[in-house]
Amino acid sequence: MIVAGLGFSSTATSASLRAAFDRATAGQAVDALATAADKAGHPALAEFAAACALPLHFADPADLAGQRTLTCSPRSRASHGTGSVAEASALAAAGPGARLLSPRQISDDRLATCAVAIGGQT
């Protein structure tokens, strides 16, 4: 399974998410979206997921903190215990043995990030 993990600020828009997603996926097919569980109610996330017609997985804090990421945002480390919510979410949702295909990419407005992981079973 190929998963696009998303990290974003409370002021991110659907366009912010789209920009980060497009940059990270570079046209590659994706099977699902993932993000931190505490971002579940964000309206831009719901709008973006519906527009993509992809299932959305929510990673628990323990699942995020246990992931090794390629990049490190001090804000992400402080708020979620991981260097990148996007990378950690993608890895957690892709399952055991997952690896990153794309480290986090940042939207031009700097409000959203996206990373892509592939499951170890694929």
Automatic annotation (TrEMBL):
Biological process (GO), any one: cobalamin biosynthetic process
Protein origin, superkingdom: Bacteria
TM regions (residue ranges): none
Recorded coiled-coil stretches: none
Protein name in UniProt: Cobalamin biosynthesis protein CbiG
UniProt xrefs under Pfam families: CbiG_C
CobE/GbiG C-terminal domain mapped to chain residues: 2-117
InterPro entries: CobE/GbiG_C, CobE/GbiG_C_sf
Organism name: Ruegeria arenilitoris
